[in-house]
Amino acid sequence: MEISAITESYYNSKNDYFPGIFCASMNVRAFGVTVLIPLYSLVFIIGVIGNVLVVLVLIQHKRLRSMTSIYLLNLAISDLVFLFTLPFWIDYILKGDWVFGDGMCKFLTGFYYLGLYSDMFFITLLTIDRYLAIVHAVFALRARTVTFGIITSIITWVLAILVSTPCLYFFRAQLEFTYHTCRADLPQESLKHFLRFQALTMNLLGLILPLLAMIFCYTRIISVLHRRPNKKKSKAMRLIFVITLLFFLLWTPYYLAAFASAFDDFLFTRGCERSQQLDLALMVTEAIAYTHCCVNPVIYVFVGERFRKYLRQLFQRHVIIPLAKWLPFFSVERTQRANSISPSTGENELSAGL
């Protein structure tokens, strides 16, 4: 009845029986039903609408086709990959039974990890892109091309797929008593070792290495901007910095909770109460992490000036103008005039544009 096969596996890696006590997790499961279903339904709706709009804006406006725009496009696709799995986990919570079969268990768990790693990788690439544009501006003129952006994006997706591949092999649907689960199918001890490996991989690739890269990049960026103030570059960096900061704020608690749950035998004294606390921590932090999927479009609206302009143009072109042909109180000429704003001069980058 958990939100994902990964969290399900963490729960099942523990022995729920302690001397004289059956360690039930009904309170944790009740929380999942009453709180997570409305929350994840909202995240799914906002996330899909927001990220689809981001993709449409990026594809429709040719002047936004830069290396940065390629990374932001892939970041939105990464969020959509993650969101694709959400209705299935909602159904899993609601029914307490995995009804989608073995193939979908493997596929959706793989997508979970694919979305997780690709999201982090593209945020790291965006930070490096800002670093090159500001710290090594001359080199960036040659290196920061659309072609290079596409090549690095393909490599990034391949790496994310490779890291996610173990799930396709180990995760499967299983019959337990009268219900089915979707989790890693391994003996108890092997399952613990596998989850420890996964927790270490997540924390290394998804937290520690990107964090070190970002600390280095932003330290150099701030140093350069302090010596040579540049309003446009500062504006461009602000958007990427907010995206990066929110990613870490929303995902770090889950990474740490997964690590604590995987290594609970070493970190904590065994007990029923401790087990329930870890289960609840996993569920709550995973819920916080999932909200990240709908955060980036909201950031673009509030932080990105040009994104709001292009969103208005998109809405005018595909909604207002068609309506104006049928409804007399809409002025077609005025709408078309508003829609034909000339592209601004200056730095032709999406990051500055957003």
TrEMBL record:
It is a multi-pass membrane protein. GO terms for molecular function: C-C chemokine receptor activity; chemokine (C-C motif) ligand 5 binding; chemokine (C-C motif) ligand 7 binding. Keywords: Cell membrane, Disulfide bond, G-protein coupled receptor, Membrane, Receptor, Transducer, Transmembrane, Transmembrane helix. Its main location: membrane. The keyword Nucleus does not apply. Residues 50-300 form the G-protein coupled receptors family 1 profile domain. It comes from the Eukaryota. This is C-C chemokine receptor 1-like protein 1.
